[in-house]
Specification:
The chain is α+β, with helices and mostly antiparallel strands. Helix content is 15%, strand content 35%. It folds into two domains: 48 residues, no CATH class; 62 residues, Roll (CPE0013-like fold), CATH 3.10.530. 16% of the residues are buried. The structure holds iron/sulfur cluster. The site of iron/sulfur cluster has 12 residues, from helix 1.
């Protein structure tokens, strides 16, 4: 059995959770200091299936603009993020682009789309 302290970031209260868990069984044995049930879901996801919003940049084919900020539309598997960023760096886009434009669908079979974080009209 392992023990871990983690801050739940689901709401601004930020409970400091104390979790006892079995990694091999992906099971929470006990959870303390959570003020609501969402703390359990947060601890479960964070321990056994951690995800993060991915942010990076891609190359713009333009004389005036070099890089476009992009992000994942939903949190991506944390263990995949480094490899995803390397692959995203290979993407090149042409202007114009609008915030929210989808640049890649189901990127690397993660179920995550890569979208533009900015609007750039000028060529
Ligand atoms: S456990 Fe509940 S009250 Fe505490 S930070 Fe998480 S969501 Fe908020």
């Amino acid at each position: 059995m392992k023990k871990k302290k983690m801050t739940c970031i689901t709401c601004p209260i930020g409970c400091l959770l104390e979790v006892d868990y079995e990694l091999t069984k992906k099971e929470i044995i006990s959870l303390k200091s959570n003020q609501c049930k969402k703390g359990y879901k947060f601890a479960q996801d964070e321990l056994f299936d951690p995800k993060r919003i991915l942010t990076t940049t891609v190359k713009i084919n333009s004389r005036f603009f070099k890089r476009l900020p992009v992000r994942s539309n939903i949190p991506a598997p944390k263990g995949m993020i480094e490899r995803m960023v390397k692959e995203i760096k290979k993407i090149q886009i042409n202007l114009p682009v609008k915030m929210g434009d989808v640049l890649a669908i189901n990127f690397m079979d993660t179920g995550v789309n890569i979208i533009s974080s900015a609007t750039i009209e000028q060529q």
